[in-house]
Amino acid sequence: MEPLLGNTSESTIDNLQSTMNLMRQITEIAECREAVRSFQRRGQSVGLVLTMGALHAGHLSLIADARKRCDEVAVTIFVNPTQFGPKEDFSKYPRPLENDLKLCREAGAAIVFTPDVGTMYATDAAATLHVGVIGERLCGAYRPGHFDGVATVVCKLFNILPADAAFFGEKDYQQLTVIRRIVRDLNIPIEIVGCPTIREPDGLAMSSRNVYLSETERLQATSLSRALFAARAAVAAGEKDASSIVDQIRRTILDAGPASVDYIEVVDPDSLASLNWMHGRARICLAVRIGATRLIDNVEFQSQED
Ligand code: AMP
User: Fold this and answer.
1) 283-296: per-residue pLDDT in tens?
2) Hey, what domains does the chain have and what are their CATH numbers?
């Protein structure tokens, strides 16, 4: 007897897959590109969610948003070495692949691309993207080369998965801004959709790195969102001086316990240029180290026009 799918053509497998809501894990570039294109040839739009795995409700909210906006969803799980500094946590970054695949399946993803480093980067790979000043401020000042690494891998993934739209979290606000910029500047034909930050019930922004926090540090980490929300309320009540907002946030965070503040900055939401005075829309971004863990968070501010 012939095996069940022995002589079955690829398009029949695709049809079967979508009818039965099967998820395909793909590790090869050509196969992944073809899987996205075959959906599109059938008139189905594809939404893309790029991740480094260790999935949590923040990632799943991106998949849910992508499912609302697109017919099919492709997820990537790849811990990208070129965006980690030499002293950063690349080797200890959590990689619970089997559980991640289960979560993707339950969330309704059609494709999960899980390449290894050798598939993504030739040993003599040399061409990279450089994003300029927008990647050198805020986190970029503390993580030299990080946003060039992010821009390069995101651009590669857009080429491997030529989706219609890609969904990114506002949690990584500078990353979202950098990606909008490369898509604009390099005319990449994909729509970028920013999605709201998902938080724990006590306000801490969800992050794959939260697992590094000890119990005491985890409690202390709630000071970041508490400080940002209090500052937002102060702005809504009329505070306009950025340095006094920053001081107030710093005090709240340092009162909660020992922490090292990389930066707290009020910025223009599009250019990320520093602002001294609040008028209209602004973003407050911060990065704080609690113990060995570096946490980032940000919120949007809206003050009355002068
Ligand atoms: P990562 O796996 O940390 O590289 O994140 C993959 C994607 O998930 C990025 O677009 C992040 O901005 C997004 N993301 C991470 N944490 C959250 C969160 N708490 N809420 C919403 N999106 C998030």
Assistant:
1) 999 999 999 999 99
2) 10-195 (3.40.50.620), 208-302 (3.30.1300.10)
